[in-house]
Every structure is written in C-alpha cells, then in structure tokens.
C-alpha cells in the first residue's frame, strides 16, 4: 500500500464511521477520556483542515480556529467528505519532502500524511467503539500505519502511554502503541 492509497483508505474508514455513528451513537462516550463520539469526529475532521493549512505553508496561528470552530456543521458526513477531499487535493500537489511546522515540532509533508493515516485509524476505532459499532479495521491499513509510526516525527502528547498488545494482529499492536486497550 502506498501513501495516497493508505490516506484514501483512512479517509474512507473515517467517513463510513461518521455515517454509521450518526445519529444514535453521536453523543456516546468514546474511549478518549472526556470526549463523546462527536467530539472525536470534530477533532479528526478538523485535523484535515489543519493538515491542509500546514501543507499550504500556514503556521500555528492559522490552526487555532480549527480546534474551536465547529468542523462538522449540520451535515457531519458532508463536512468530512469536503474537508478530506480538500486535504487530498493539496497533498497531491505539495512538496512532501518540505518541512511543515506541526505544533509538536517540524516534520516533512510525508510524515504529516502518515500521521493523518494513523489518526484516521485510531480515531475511527475510538468512534466505532463509542458508538457500539464493529471495531474491526482493515489489517493492511493498520499495518501501513504501524510500519510508519517510528518515522512520523514527535508523537509526544498524541496518545496515552502505550499498552501491551494482547495479540500480534496489526490492529491490536497499533492500538496498543496508541495507548488503546482493545478487548
């Protein structure tokens, strides 16, 4: 799986999770402490906007509203599709070897997009668990993100302390590295 295939698969997973979680699971608690399923969706959909802005050369000050302004609107699925498509359009023309100034430190555009794949996988799992949906995720997508975790730049502050994986399955190992404890 190559980067843009994985990014597209991550966005597809995220989108289907948002669609499946609406409306019944939207207000449920997620595994992210203090966040509902909707809160997680807001965060990860806003991430598409933040990453697009970073690839376009904007700095931290431009990212602030993406954390506070409503990223989901009246149609969360349409908002997600629009924001993911905008990120993909910019990413396909960006110089991915260039450094961007992510809030946790500089990283290349490639590292940023690998992190986006990881966020789509981890947060889709968070939303799926919170909404009571099947938490299974494509093992190839999990393996892609897992194989790139050590080369994504500083991940400090993103995840809880790593848990111990209960199996060698790529999803279980990836989620454990992200501090999740799948059952």
| Percent strand | under 5%
- Strands in their spatial order, largest beta sheet: 1-2
Q: Overall mean pLDDT score?
A: 92
**Radius of gyration over alpha carbons?**
15 Å
Number of helices: 7
If you had to describe this structure to a student in words, what would you say it looks like?
- This protein has 183 residues and is mostly helical.
- Strand 1 and strand 2 form a beta hairpin.
- Helix 1 packs parallel to helix 5 and helix 5 crosses helix 6.
- The longest helix has 23 residues.
- The chain is globular.
- The model has no long low-confidence stretch (mean pLDDT 92).
Quick overview:
This protein is mostly helical. The protein has seven helices and two strands. The protein starts with a helix and ends in a 6-residue tail after the last helix.
Write the layout of secondary structure elements.
Layout (H helix, E strand, L loop, with lengths): L2 H19 L15 H19 L4 H9 L7 H18 L5 E4 L2 E4 H23 L7 H10 L21 H8 L6
Antiparallel strand pairs: 1-2
Helix pairs in contact: 1-4, 1-5, 2-3, 2-4, 2-5, 5-6, 6-7
Features:
183 residues, mainly alpha, 7 helices, 2 strands, 4% strand
């Amino acid at each position: 799986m190559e980067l843009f295939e994985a990014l597209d698969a991550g966005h597809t997973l995220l989108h289907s999770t948002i669609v499946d979680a609406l409306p019944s699971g939207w207000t449920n608690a997620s595994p992210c402490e203090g966040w509902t399923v909707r809160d997680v969706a807001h965060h990860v959909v806003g991430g598409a906007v933040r990453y697009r802005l970073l690839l376009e050369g904007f700095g931290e000050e431009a990212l602030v509203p993406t954390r506070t302004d409503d990223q989901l609107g009246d149609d969360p699925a349409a908002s997600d599709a629009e924001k993911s498509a905008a990120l993909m359009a910019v990413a396909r023309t960006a110089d991915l070897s260039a450094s961007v100034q992510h809030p946790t430190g500089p990283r290349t555009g490639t590292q940023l997009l690998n992190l986006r794949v990881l966020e789509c996988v981890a947060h889709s799992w968070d939303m799926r668990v919170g909404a009571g949906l099947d938490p299974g995720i494509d093992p190839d997508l999990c393996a892609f993100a897992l194989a790139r975790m050590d080369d994504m730049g500083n991940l400090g502050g993103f995840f809880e302390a790593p848990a111990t994986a209960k199996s060698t399955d790529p999803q279980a190992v990836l989620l454990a590295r992200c501090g999740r404890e799948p059952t």
